[in-house]
Amino acid sequence: MINLKKKFLIYGYGISGKSVEKYLYNQKCNYNIYDDIKKINHKKVISKKFLLSRINEYHYFVVSPSIKIEKNHFLFKHKNKILIDLDFLSLEISTQKIIGVTGTEGKSSTCSYLKEILSKKYNTKIIGNFGKTIIDKKNLNNYLSKIDILIIELSSYQLDKIKFLKLNYALITNIFNDHIDYHKTFRNYVISKFRIQKFLHKNSNLFLSKELFLKYRSLIDINKRRLILYNYRLPSKKDLNEHIKEINLNSIRNLINNIDSKIKIQKSNISSELKYRNQLIYNSNNLKIYNDSKCTNLNNAVYKNNLIYSSKKILILGGKFKKQDKNHKFNITNTLVLIFGFQNKLFYDHLNFINSNCIKFTNLIQLIHFLKLILKFNKYDYILFSPGGESYDYYKNYLDRGKHFNQLIKKAIL
To answer: Which ranges constitute the DSSP H helices of 10-65?
Structure first.
């Protein structure tokens, strides 16, 4: 259990760091702030020199989740003292049911679906990697007393560092090759995802697909928790949104039934749609265009493209390429692949083209000009913009990239 009377160092003054500061301030705790990159004008900020000279005075180091603590890092010897913002919830949770959701892709959509369905009967909130925090609330205990169910979206970075968070339910949506720069190997990444089971209360439920269970059975501690499996059932419709919605809903049916068997799950009543996540932005003249700018994983981009049952489709890839297993290639079938960006060759080298063609472009604008020309011949009925790479090559984030794509498509189509 965290002792708030001890001394804390907040390492990293981003969104999570600032929320931790508010929490510690409200709790009248003793703390300092340190950031490797930012120059911060704040009376609680200390220099690295000062920190290293007094490092043994700190009982806890509250770290921003994405900071990697490797052997050469000055905090490596103090790894047992490292916390993240979510750990403080262990001091505040009482009767609330806590759901942890992790996976490579679809975490945010799955959390949104859970909230929408459960909110019909319970006061439900989403926090964590979803982009929202609550520990900075001035009267956190009073705020939490009004919440029945708390859904926490958990990244592999967070799961790598959490120590005290406790869950009533845990769900793993899927696992694709991702975040190799941080975890070094795919196996390490997979292990980080399965750490979610470590935070379950005794005899609580872990929900995952039969496919994941069969693949990673050795990583599951069956003796300490109840395992509930589900099958992926793919619908016969061609619409990509219907495919993804059905997959996401199928993953949460057992979980919701476990919480309250009286809650009815009806696909037609789900309205949650995240911006630039499989978003249908054009549907006319037998052509559908999807904006999936939120996709930063090549494996997932190819997977979604292969869900579209058509031989007349275009997949648009690009962005900052994430490190992949250099010996692994993803099969892409019956598709015209258009790749933009300065790392387009890296995308190309990791694809195995089956009845497919590929053209590389310098940037997205150049690609859209080409797209405008070929659409005049009405040869294609689906376009999926699912970059499969990070947006930081030319854009601030995936939202900025998604917005730009919409603007370019609007000019090209009209």
So the answer is: 15-26, 48-53
Q: Please identify which residue in the block is written with the tokens 């395992």.
A: 227
List, for residues 120-150, the tens digit of each pLDDT value: 999 999 999 877 789 999 889 889 999 999 9
In the chain, where the domains are located: 7-83, 88-269, 279-413
Cβ 309 vs Cβ 385: under 8 Å:
no
Reduced DSSP (H G I as helix, E B as strand, rest coil) percent helix, strand, coil of the chain, to 5: 35, 25, 40
d(CA 362, CA 360): 7
Q: What is the pLDDT of residue 229?
A: 86
Are the beta carbons of 199 and 170 closer than 8 angstroms? yes
Tokens (6 digits) for 149: 């169910």
SS3 394: coil
- Kindly report, residue by residue over 60-90, the tens digit of the pLDDT: 999 998 899 999 999 999 999 999 999 999 9
CB 305 within 8 A of CB 315: yes
CATH superfamily of this structure's domain 279-413: Mur ligase, C-terminal domain (3.90.190.20)
Collapsed DSSP state (helix, strand, coil) of residue 313: strand
Compute the CA torsion angle 86, 92, 95, 101 (nearest 10 deg): 0
Q: What is the CATH number of domain 88-269?
A: 3.40.1190.10
- Distance between CA atoms of residues 301 and 389, nearest Å: 9
Q: Which long-range contacts (CB under 8 A, 24 or more apart) does 245-253 make?
A: 245/270, 247/106, 248/106, 248/109, 248/110, 248/113, 248/173, 249/113, 251/106, 251/110, 251/171, 251/173, 251/207, 251/209, 252/110, 252/113, 252/114, 252/117, 252/171, 252/207
Predicted confidence (pLDDT) per residue in 28-54, tens digit = 999 999 998 877 888 999 999 999 999
CATH superfamily for domain 7-83:
NAD(P)-binding Rossmann-like Domain (3.40.50.720)
